[in-house]
Amino acid sequence: MSDSHSSFSSLKDPSISHPISQCIQITLYTLHLQSTQLTFIWIPGHTDIAEHDLLDSAAKQATNHPKITYPTHLPLPDLKNLYKNHLNFLWNSTWSDQPSNKLYQIKQDIKSWPSSNRHSSREEIVLIRLRIGHICLTYSHLFSSYIFPPLCPFCESDNLKVSHIFACLNLEN
Predict the structure, then answer these.
(1) What are residue 2's DSSP bridge partners?
(2) 37 pLDDT exceeds 60?
(3) DSSP3 helix / strand / coil % (the chain, rounded to 5)
(4) Residue 65 banded pLDDT, cuts 50, 70, 90
(5) What is each CA distance from 114 to 14, 117, 118, 147, 173, in whole angstroms?
(6) How far apart are CA 65 and CA 77, in angstroms?
(7) How far apart are CA 115 and CA 43, in angstroms?
(8) How high is the pLDDT of residue 49?
(9) pTM greater than 0.70
């Protein structure tokens, strides 16, 4: 029984290069030669079964646990995925644990935004600058001889940030 449809599909593929899948295929062939009957059952995942969701959550937490020891004979793609998950875990921990991280207010994790796959590079740059609050109106004083940040043209507040511009009550006029 498994909720991994791709695992079952890989067992059907005679040209699979993954060593674990190859080992399972050899075992299945040996059992077939011995006339052993097997039944594979695919259980669709994420169907709001409480026990399944608990197991799925526990499995995800286990993959991020830094003290787990792994066999040294794992295939290269599995090792690559393992290290990538571990590095992402460390990066996300560092990202959220730094008190001076002003970008944390904008984005609480390191996952990419789904809207960050624009075909236009210009659109992507505009979105990024809006998200982090670095636009010409709010940061141009840093590149000129003007020392102080500009005032809001609507309410004359000295807190001119992108978030203030969108929240400014006088913006409706």
Answers:
(1) 42
(2) yes
(3) 55, 0, 45
(4) low
(5) 36, 7, 10, 37, 33
(6) 19
(7) 32
(8) 65
(9) no
